[in-house]
Design goal:
Helix 13 packs parallel to helix 20. The protein has 21 helices and no strands. InterPro entries: MFS, MFS_dom, MFS_Na/Anion_cotransporter, MFS_trans_sf, Sugar_P_transporter.
């Protein structure tokens, strides 16, 4: 419906008065890319049991394999954020998609290796995937800040963030079937090819707001009037200089941002349990086959997806009804994190159906409360939106290192997942405390620029 919309700069005509809706096409692209992003992260969890048996790994070694992505992902966050501010979201994100997909594909080619060499190769390639994926979520937040006004930003952020659940719904059964029918190597090959195709589509369909051939002036004006940063890639201090640690120091000294960052760590700890150990929990603790676990894992993911969308809708609805930005963002986050703690109940039930239902409730809560990226779009200094998002993602994804390893040690030393569920569930409580008592008023940070 946007094909005939006049481009920016067209004369005012009746057609020009009707705002185009290109921003929703951009949001659809963010959703699809993020779905593939999380599916690529989850490949090892689906292939994990077969890999563990084939390569002779114990639970601790598998935990380290799971964490390989996290180490590099965290290390590369700040450089990735600076690259976004320096060269723009479209260029950097497009290159990121292509490179991580190539490294994913390469994980399926290590069949000629065995034992320690194979483990080392998987670790190294997972490490490189983490480097390549580092700009992804800061870019998502940056693009939403550019394309959406504040009153649509919560829902838009919730939609791209909910892609992590869609990844499990769509790809967990597919990847489980591939492992069951062909072997674990083929999972990486299939996902790598899909990612390379997505990199091509990104190049074709995504542009900056004022450069998109299908956007009209009315839509640009609507976005700008609502606080959208439509010129985010056309100006800014970061485009004229290298990384500035003084800006990072300013962000770290801000109490509101530190509360958001710590809470993001806790929220992501829940995420990384579900995309790493959860399928293995179903196989080893609940006696399911890998094929069944792949399909069962999609049930909580559907609930997480619904919770994620609902959290954004509730937040934007509260905002439209006159609630402050702080109330509109905090209410879904706190309620969701309290619900996520319900996973501990699984330690006291035996029926598989009840376990799945409880995990579905916990995952719904996690989705409901996963509004960290909307909050980042609301608070990031406009001059360094990429760097600010990268810093939040650095904190958030420290849990991609700690959670898989901690769960591996707990399971390895106790022979049970009970302690692991308590460990993961407590992160929901800490996130609540952060938003209730540390964050305070949610507002955009004003950066003190150096002359």
């Amino acid at each position: 419906m946007d094909a005939e919309a006049p481009i920016v700069g067209a004369k005012s005509t009746p057609a020009a008065l009707r705002a185009s809706r290109v921003r929703f096409t951009i949001l659809a692209m963010l959703f699809i890319v993020t779905t593939i992003n999380y599916a690529d992260r989850a490949t090892v969890s689906i292939a994990g049991s077969a890999m563990q048996k084939d390569l002779g790994m114990n639970a601790v070694a598998l935990g380290y394999i799971f964490s390989a992505f996290g180490w590099s992902y965290v290390i590369a966050q700040l450089p990735g954020g600076w690259l976004l501010d320096k060269f723009g979201s479209r260029r950097v994100y497009g290159a990121s998609i292509l490179i991580w997909s190539i490294f994913t594909f390469m994980q399926g080619t290590i069949g000629f290796l065995a034992g320690g060499a194979a483990v080392a190769a998987v670790f190294a390639l997972r490490f490189l995937v983490g480097v390549a994926e580092a700009p992804a979520f800061p870019a998502n937040s940056r693009i939403v800040a550019a394309w959406f006004p504040a009153n649509e930003r919560g829902t838009a952020s919730a939609i791209f963030n909910s892609a992590q659940y869609a990844a499990t719904v769509i790809f967990a059964p597919l990847m489980a079937w591939v492992v069951h029918s062909f072997g674990w190597h083929e999972v990486f090959i299939v996902m790598g090819v899909l990612g390379i195709a997505m990199a091509i589509a990104w190049r074709i369909f995504v542009r900056d707001p004022k450069e998109h051939p299908r956007v009209n002036q009315a839509e640009i004006e609507y976005i700008e009037a609502g606080g959208g940063l439509v010129d985010i890639d056309r100006s800014g201090a970061a485009r004229r200089q290298g990384p500035n640690l003084a800006y990072v120091k300013q962000l770290l000294k801000n109490r509101m941002l530190m509360g958001i960052y710590i809470a993001q760590y806790c929220i992501n700890a829940l995420t990384y349990f579900f995309i790493t150990w959860f399928p293995i929990y179903l196989v080893q603790a609940r006696g399911m086959s890998i094929l069944k676990a792949g399909f069962v894992a999609s049930v909580p993911a559907v609930c997480g997806f619904l919770g994620g969308i609902l959290g954004g809708i509730i937040s934007d609805w509260l905002l439209s009804r006159g609630a402050s930005l702080s109330v509109a963002r905090k209410v879904p986050i706190v309620l969701g994190m309290l619900l996520s703690m319900s996973m501990v109940i699984c330690n006291y039930v035996d029926a598989q159906a009840v376990v799945v239902a409880v995990m579905a409730l916990a995952f719904f809560g996690k989705g409901l409360g996963a509004l960290g990226w909307a909050v980042n779009s609301d608070t990031a200094p406009k001059q360094i939106a990429g760097l600010s998002g990268a810093l939040m993602n650095t904190f958030g994804n420290l849990s991609s290192i700690t959670t898989p390893i901690a769960v591996g040690y707990i399971v390895g030393h106790t022979g049970s997942f009970n302690g692991a569920l308590v460990f993961v569930g407590l992160h929901g409580l800490i996130a609540c405390v952060c938003y209730l008592f540390l964050v305070g008023k949610i507002q955009r940070v004003e950066l003190k620029l150096e002359s």
